[in-house]
Amino acid sequence: MTSAQEKKIRQTGCDARFDNLTRQLYSTDASIYQIRPVGAAFPKTAEQASLVIHATADAGISVTPRGAGTSLVGNAIGEGLIVDFSRHNRQITGLELEKRSVRVGAGVVLDQLNDFLKPHGFGFGPDVATSSRATLGGMIANNSSGARCPIYGTTADHVISLEIVLADGRIVTVGEADSFPSNRAASVEHERQQILKIVREHSAEMAERWPPGLIKRWPGYGIERFLRAPNDLTNILGGSEGTLAAIFSAELKISPLPHEKGLGLIFFASIAEAMQATVELLDLKPAAIEHIDRPLFNGTKGQLQFQAARDLLELESKPCESILIVEFYDDSRNDVASAVAEKLSILQSRKLGLRTKILTDPAQMNMVWSVRKSGLSLLTGCIGPAKPVAFIEDAAVRPAQLPEYVRGLQSIMKPLGLTASYYGHAASGLLHVRPVLDMHSAADLKKFRHVADETSALVRQFKGSLSAEHGVGIARTEYMRDQLGNQLLEVMREIKRAFDPKNVFNPGKIFEVGTSRCDVRTPQRGVPTTIDNHLRENFTRPLELPFQPVLAFAFKDRSFTGNLEQCNGCGGCLKQSGIMCPTFIATHDEVMSTRGRANIIRAALEGRLSRNGPEGFRGRNMTAGKPSLLGDPLKSAELDAALSNCLSCKGCTPECPSNVNLALLKAEMLHARWRRDGLPLRERILSNVDLLGKLGCLLPRLTNQLLGSKLARIAMEKAIGISARRSLPHYASERFDKWFRRHCTASVSDATNKEGRSPDRPGGYKPPLLWNRGPVILWDDTFVRYHEPHIGIAAVKVLEALGFEVALVKHRRCCGRPAFSQGNLDAAAKLAKHNIDLLSSRGAPGGHALPIIFLEPSCWSMFVEDYRELKIENAENIAARCFLFEKFVADLLAKEPEALRFKDESRSREILIHPHCHAKSILNPAFMATLAERLPGRKATVLDTACCGMAGAFGALAEKYDLSLLVAQRLLDQIDNQRRTVSGSAADTEVIASGTSCRHQISDLTDKHPTHMAELLAEAIA
Ligand SMILES: Cc1cc2nc3c(=O)[nH]c(=O)nc-3n(C[C@H](O)[C@H](O)[C@H](O)COP(=O)(O)OP(=O)(O)OC[C@H]3O[C@@H](n4cnc5c(N)ncnc54)[C@H](O)[C@@H]3O)c2cc1C
Ligand code: SF4
Ligand code: SF4
Questions:
Q1: Which of 37, 323, 420, 686 gives 20 to 30 Å between its CA and that of 838?
Q2: What sign for the dihedral angle of Cα 647, 651, 656, 660?
Q3: pLDDT (0 to 100) of residue 750
Q4: How far is the CA of 593 from the centre of ligand 1 (A)?
Q5: pLDDT in tens, 154-189
Q6: Residues lining ligand 3, Cβ inside 6 A
């Protein structure tokens, strides 16, 4: 890419980036392939898209349109300019209920559209498993479809018209209807006629190659659909994989939501029985029959978010090899309930498989669907370098052919000693088969090719479709001649020439063109599109770490590289809900996603980052075919852009289906750097907030005054980058541990010395006469001890009212969370060892079994997770004794509701709970609402929030302040909405937040002063 070419593209006014960070971020999608583009552009309007595409083509550079990059076949990557439609084009307009249509920008995400349509009783039919991030542009271009294909068909069946941008910059609307000005379509009338002619000439060939009965799509352009509706070029564009034009917006058909749904689950002893049963169920006309097998549901083991589903399916107590999920819909509105119920009862009466389970409760049905939808990622999340690889995973046959087709596939795998999962859309004759291969191994790469070749032949034998869902991309282009035959392939080429005569759009995909017309100096130019070219670099050149990792990655992979390579690009972290990933939710920027961060760490370790930051990149040196390291793998502007914005919130740990743990990966990378280069002053200070607390509490008034002064704050911002715009936590006039000693004198070592207890309690509070439940340890964390002793006091009151004898741990040190977050792992490990030794050696009554109660979730998660990550001896035993305060109390009250008596409340009060992200990453926070609702007159809602954006010290850093506010916006909106809609009156709502930084963020940004659950309970005790 020359500077003249770059200038030309920049002059269009469209946001276009050519820096190395962007290029690396867009080098991969969800496939096994990797191609570095020259840059990426982010058009906001059709005009901008037109200008940028035209200028790029004019500069001799190819264009690859892109949505969320969840495609599995490598068609969302390319050597030229990536035009990302997902960032800005998210507008939904023109809803016409009578016409049953809606207009969407290409970047609208399927879940976003369905959320918009739901209140109107409508939805979009095709249901891809990636609905949380897949864009409508990507769905149309891939002609995607999902489980309900038998009733809804594919995405192309739901397109009314498309606003497209051609390579010469023309903006054209195509479609069947006269819903757009004819002049916008007229300009492609010539192309339409040309295509019609050639398609008609080859109708016999199509009939021969593609006999009826296939439910999903055929590979390549939709010529068979176009033959049926020759006025409508959307049929050609649907499934064209960005090789003909860019889609800017679309008018879509919408479907009424089903009035009634029901699920029949059938459990089998073998896959073969399940396949046979599928054929036997087709007469019931189910909306979907989905198959899941043991490798898939085994992937849910030990995963918090799937535990309820595992229990529902009774996978432990009643094992099976495979399950059919049979769904029935009825939207006829007449006698609907009985229609679904009738079909479910017929299904049950057929007595298929080992057992049957019927579900009609929406929450339970969703639980089962969530397992199915996470299928791919659950499989690829397995431990070790061998993973189920997606390359033959969307071949389809007619449903009745399934049993024989599966036997054929098994006979390909068996001689090679390969195992595979066979899950997916049984009712549509499509199984996502993913052989388990180690793509780093030459032997397995040979098997990879062998299986691909044989499967292509098998599919031909069944006259099926080799790419019935995900597109042709890089993964199947090589087989298109076999699949289509020379004549149909030539028809496709003709169509390409008609639309895109200069081969600007996504070259090398669908056709064996093999070369792109990209800048001559692009290193990958000329590499043909075969299944084993363009593989991700870490497959062909194993990652070498320039440091010795120190963390255990205990939850799963037991290795840094193993966890990093878990990221398969599926894009789950681009969703707009849940707790992963708050920085992406706030910005829609790829580098702010877990995927972006994992990709950049990989790029750093592969030597693909620049020495002098993004602008310093000059291309990669090739020495004897081996790329030489350009940048420092531990230190570069790109790495900093990716890692420094990660909140270490742990949202990805449970929600990434492959359990990529960015908080740990980031900590390791930082630690390696600090070990080599020394710990900077700011990180040193922030690692030691406990010491700061101790110092601050020596002269709290003076310290608070000093820290409140504007001058001091400006100086702090200049010296160590702590934002002057942030309030700082106040130091308490009396430390909690001092209060505790004065009022309770019940530290662990004194626990048996009952004489030492003081009967005087503040506020007239009297301890119970009988501590009949024995002692518990309350962990007086840094924040409670030095800044918020009232929370500790409240917790003591609650625990004592429950009958516990509360003790603190003398000589405890900071849990190490602040040091861990800074990557100061040596310091964190020292603190951890001290605390674990201390707790292990206490000879308190009850010995080592004393429960340890935590008020601050980030300290609790340090004990229950990260001490193990730091490989601290006995950490596991101590972890088993650690409880979050709320959970401890909630569990006790669940068993003994009368254990606490609360005052009657005349006024009804609305409790809004924002759980800490570290707590949510380990526990389902729903119990917090149940706990709060034990208080008379309280109605509680757990807010649908992720990290608050404060994330320890993150939100206090001058350069992160703005991002912190952006991340907080979701929480603020939730509080606002709930206050307005639920209670109607702000005075009646109370916000509960268990994390100190969350309380700080909410106090800073709203008029609310959130409290800890301990305070809420203590105040209500009768
Ligand atoms: C875990 C997982 C599960 C999946 N499940 C399904 C499934 O159930 N059903 C299914 O069909 N697919 C599935 N897929 C594949 C993929 O999610 C879908 O194909 C999805 O529709 C792609 O959308 P996207 O926005 O990510 O598109 P991208 O991946 O960004 O792009 C896909 C193709 O569309 C082109 N494109 C994107 N936007 C435009 C545009 N505006 N104009 C022109 N061309 C464009 C690209 O060039 C590329 O060729 C799955 C993928 C994963 C990782
Ligand atoms: S981080 Fe996880 S969810 Fe995100 S792309 Fe990687 S594997 Fe998928
Ligand atoms: S730790 Fe939080 S911010 Fe960082 S990548 Fe994971 S989800 Fe995103």
A1: 686
A2: positive
A3: 40
A4: 18
A5: 999 999 999 999 999 999 999 986 555 555 556 789
A6: 580-583, 594, 597, 646-652, 662-663
